[in-house]
Amino acid sequence: MKKFLLVTLFTILSIAFLAACGTSDDNATGSEEGTEEKKVLTMGTSADFPPFETIDAASGEYVGFDIDLANAIADKLGYELKIENMDFGGLISALQSERLDFIISGMSATEERKKSVDFSMEYHKSGEMFVTLKDSGIKTLEDLEGKTVGVQLGSIQEEGAKKIKEETLKSLEISALNKAPELIQELKAGRIDAVYLDKTVAVGFIEELDLAGFDDPTEASPGMAIAFAKGDELVDEFNKVLEEMKENGELEKLQKQWMEE
After folding, report:
1. pLDDT tens-digit profile of 70-92?
2. Which helix (H) or strand (E) holds 28?
3. Measuring CA to CA, which residue among 248, 226, 249, 229 is closest to residue 238?
């Protein structure tokens, strides 16, 4: 009899314990379901390209037109944004290896790049410009014959410089570096004769550092767009937001904020 009572008591206590555990698990699950976390999207950029993307010296934060644009799109789509800073030349390979979800880095949607990635609609177009020292005497494309031009590694300007050398200036020398500020340092040190940059970026350096420059008279490059892995459904999501921002004036407002003011 005592044995039966002990077994019964043990069984009741076990059921009560399991029920309590079950209740605890259920509450935890309910809590997780009730607090839905935002999906994180990792954006790749080369933060050396003001006013599109750079690092604020005071705060250490990423700032620029592309940064604000990426944050706006992510917010409208309900994503949390994480930014990975790397050399421009490594961005597409990082995207292809799934380290990144997309790229916003002043990247032009060239036909060559379209073989490797998909692009959104264009969100900005500015053309190219050559930056020189004020006393260099270099004022036209022809003046670059026999000179050395600096370009950012992997950029459309690198492709453009090679095309100019092949078609027009046979003796043009090309020096490719990873970051735009490094090119400006090389120019000021006299190690190169000109820097070939996106026009918006070039104008910023010219005004800030009292340099000179002239527009590239050759064929204009494609506009800037957001890059994604081939077949990524995010392209349609981002395009929808970009179209809305274009129609309601948000895109133009961002451009004025970073490129005019």
Report:
1. 999 999 999 999 999 999 999 99
2. helix 2-34
3. 226
183 φ/ψ sector (left φ>0, alpha ψ -120 to 50, else beta): alpha
| β-strands 173-177, 148-152 pairing | parallel
Residue closest to 229 by CA, chosen among 113, 81, 118, 114: 118
pTM for the full model? 0.79
Residue 87: how many other CB atoms lie within 10 Å: 15
pLDDT per residue over 135-172, tens digit each?
A: 999 999 999 999 999 999 999 999 999 999 999 999 99
Both tokens of residue 46? 């080369």
Rounded to whole angstroms, the Cα distance separating 236 from 234 reads 5
Q: Which two three-digit tokens encode residue 137?
A: 């005497």
Residues 13-36: pLDDT tens digits? 343 433 444 433 443 334 344 456
